[in-house]
Amino acid sequence: MNAHNRRITIDLSICHGKPATRGLRYPVETRLLVLAVITIFLHKIPTNIPITIRHIIPYV
User: Fold this and answer.
1) How far, in Å, CA of 30 to CA of 51, rounded?
2) Torsion of CA 46, 50, 32, 34, to 10 degrees
3) How many C-beta neighbours within 10 Å does residue 20 have?
4) Strands (E), the chain
5) Count of domains observed in the chain
6) Helix, strand or coil, per DSSP, at residue 34
7) How far apart are CA 44 and CA 38, in angstroms?
8) Pick from 2, 36, 37, 31: nearest CA to 18
9) In 3-state terms, what secondary structure has residue 30?
10) Torsion, Cα of 3, 22, 60, 40 (10° steps)
11) What's the mean pLDDT when you consider all of the chain?
12) Counting beta carbons within 10 angstroms of the beta carbon of residue 21, is it exposed (0 to 12), middle (13 to 18) or buried (19 or more)?
């Protein structure tokens, strides 16, 4: 079992049986959606604006 399999759990009593992050109870689907939204957001920022991921993360 690799590290990724140990971080994801499937339990009927957690998140209605959907794959979830172990210990956090966040569905994997939701985490991937948030990652996709952040990625789209970062790609839409004009490159001439001096902003870094370090400054964005606290507001996400």
Assistant:
1) 26
2) -90
3) 22
4) 8-9, 20-21
5) 1
6) helix
7) 10
8) 31
9) helix
10) 50
11) 80
12) middle
